[in-house]
Write a structure and sequence with these properties.
The chain is mostly helical and 184 residues long. It contains 7 helices and no strands. The radius of gyration is 24 Å and the shape is rod-shaped.
Length: 184
């Protein structure tokens, strides 16, 4: 009788352990999804601001058609990207197009003085900062989740219930990794 009781207690404790570990993995996976949705919200805001900025600039920059087309194409690709890797790559391309746009803007002092343009540019800068913060929060969540599903004993539970590692939101373009060059 005592041996059966010990087996029952071990099974109950093991069941609680399994349920607790499973629930912890679910919570972490949901945190990763929430962090991704925060990035998505900021990227949507960025995608909405860019056309307004471009339209404001078009009146001043009539000879920069190629720059506008690259921004429009990069924005479209970014909006259609599906998974984390595709979004990372597309957003890197959009950032590169916007960097070129900002360099071209320097040649138009009247545009740089336009209050509407300055306001839009400030909003875009604020949004870029929020995107950067959201990327960091997302990558932190992914790191914690991926560690949890790969470390013993939770890796056993993760394997049993098909928990898969998530991708980090990484910089795809090498030039984005480099520090900006300042020359006087």
């Amino acid at each position: 009788m005592g041996g059966v009781l010990i087996i029952v207690v071990l099974l109950v404790v093991g069941g609680f352990f399994l349920v607790g570990m499973y629930n912890a993995l679910i919570r972490l996976r949901n945190q990763v999804k929430n962090a991704w949705s925060q990035i998505d919200v900021q990227l949507k805001r960025r995608h909405d601001l860019i056309p307004n900025l471009v339209e404001t600039a078009k009146g001043y920059m009539s000879h920069e058609r190629e720059t506008f087309e690259k921004i429009t194409q990069a924005r479209s690709q970014a909006m259609q990207a599906g998974n984390v890797k595709d979004v990372s790559k597309a957003e890197g391309n959009l950032s590169a197009a916007m960097s070129k746009f900002n360099l071209v803007v320097e040649n138009y002092p009247d545009l740089k003085a336009n209050q509407n343009f300055l306001s839009l540019q400030e909003e875009l800068t604020s949004t870029e900062n929020k995107i950067s913060f959201s990327r960091q929060a997302y990558n932190d969540s992914v790191l914690f989740y991926n560690n949890k599903i790969q470390i013993f004993p939770s890796n056993l539970i993760a394997g049993m219930f098909s928990f898969k590692a998530e991708d980090f939101f990484e910089i795809e373009r090498e030039e984005e990794r480099e520090a900006p060059k300042v020359e006087f």
